[in-house]
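[agent] plan:
  1. take the single chain provided in the ticket
  2. run structure prediction with default settings
  3. attach C-alpha cells to the ticket
  4. add a short note for the reviewer (M.T.)
[agent] executing step 1
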Amino acid sequence: MKVVLLCGGQGKRMFPLTEDKVLLKFLGKTLLEHQIETACQAGLRDYVIICHTGNIKQLQSIAAGIQGIKVEFALQKNQVGIAGALQAARHLLSSPVIVVNPNDLFEVNAYKNLLAAGNTKPVATLLAYEVKEYFPGGYLMT
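[agent] step 2 finished; step 3 output follows
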C-alpha cells in the first residue's frame, strides 16, 4: 500500500514563519520527516509525494536522506485543492493508497489500524479526536 503525502499546497496562513508547512521544523526534523518516520514504524515503505515547483527540490532532498523507502513524486502545477493534487498523481495511484496531509501528525496505530483493516473496502477513513472546548478547525458530529 502506498502513502500519498499532500505537499503541493502553500501555507499562506503560516506566513511569515514559512510558506511551506511540511518543511516546518519541529524537534529538529521537518513535519514531512516526522510523518514518513511514523508511517515507516507501521511498516509502510512506498510513498508518493505530491509537490509544487517551489518545494520539489527540498522534498526530494529530504526523501533521499531517509533509508529504506521508495518515493515517487508528482508535480501539482496549480494549487486547486486535494482533488487537484490527486489528479496530478493519478498515474502513480494504481493500488490502494492512504492519503495523508503531512501537516497533521498522528500515531503509528493509525497506520497500523488502516493496514489491519485489509481489503474490507473502506471508501474513506477519517481520523479525528474529541475536543472539550471550541476549536476553530472544523468539527465532526456523530
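[agent] step 4 note for reviewer: Strands lie at 2-6, 25-26, 29-30, 46-51, 70-75, 97-100.
[agent] ticket updated
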